[in-house]
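User: Can you recover a sequence for this backbone? Please restate the input before giving your answer.

Assistant: Of course. Working from this structure:
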């Protein structure tokens, strides 16, 4: 288990990531990274989220030398489709129809950086959703909860009633796999890590 480093920055403005790190006892500043989040053609989902996490910590580390920076990016994957945050209520409905009654993967890329040392990894959790009828999906989308969440649902909120089972890290599905963050910080603290 890693002990709290000083001068940590979370390169995200996500309320869920902030809450997770706070509950886990980390002391940190929030400095959201502004990076191009477009997926490259044919980029595998695992490489995509790891790249975005590295891009986020790199963008913040430039102006914060000597500080540990944590970055993350989360997507939902069903079959070969990568689902990020929905751009509209209609897109949220389409996403939830894809996920209804099926298992899908939640992937979060996490990167930690201190100076030139940067390490990253990807956590995968399998989530099983109940069968959702159109009325349920429409009601849920109208709550507004899906609007800022990968895959158009939040396991920690109203949608918790739709989840029948998860295999893996719960905090990963929320947006930040805390055990992975801790392991990466521990590795970073052991000395130079190649970029």
């Amino acid at each position: 288990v890693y002990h709290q480093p000083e001068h940590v920055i979370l390169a995200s403005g996500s309320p869920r990531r902030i809450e997770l790190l706070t509950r886990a006892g980390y002391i940190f500043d929030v400095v959201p990274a502004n990076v191009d989040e477009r997926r490259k053609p044919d980029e595998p989902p695992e490489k995509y989220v790891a790249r975005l996490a590295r891009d986020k910590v790199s963008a913040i580390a430039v102006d914060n030398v000597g500080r540990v920076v944590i970055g993350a990016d989360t997507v939902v994957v069903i079959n070969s489709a990568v689902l990020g945050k929905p751009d509209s209520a209609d897109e949220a409905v389409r996403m939830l129809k894809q996920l209804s009654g099926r298992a899908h993967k939640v992937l979060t890329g996490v990167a930690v950086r201190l100076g030139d040392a940067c390490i990253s990894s990807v956590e995968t959790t399998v989530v099983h959703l109940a069968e959702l009828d159109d009325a349920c999906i429409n009601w849920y989308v109208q709550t507004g909860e899906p609007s800022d969440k990968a895959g158009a649902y939040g396991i920690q909120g109203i949608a918790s009633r739709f989840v029948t089972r998860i295999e893996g890290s719960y905090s990963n599905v929320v947006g930040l796999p805390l055990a992975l963050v801790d392991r990466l910080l521990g590795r970073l603290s052991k000395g130079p890590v190649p970029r």
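That completes the design. The longest strand covers residues 117-129.
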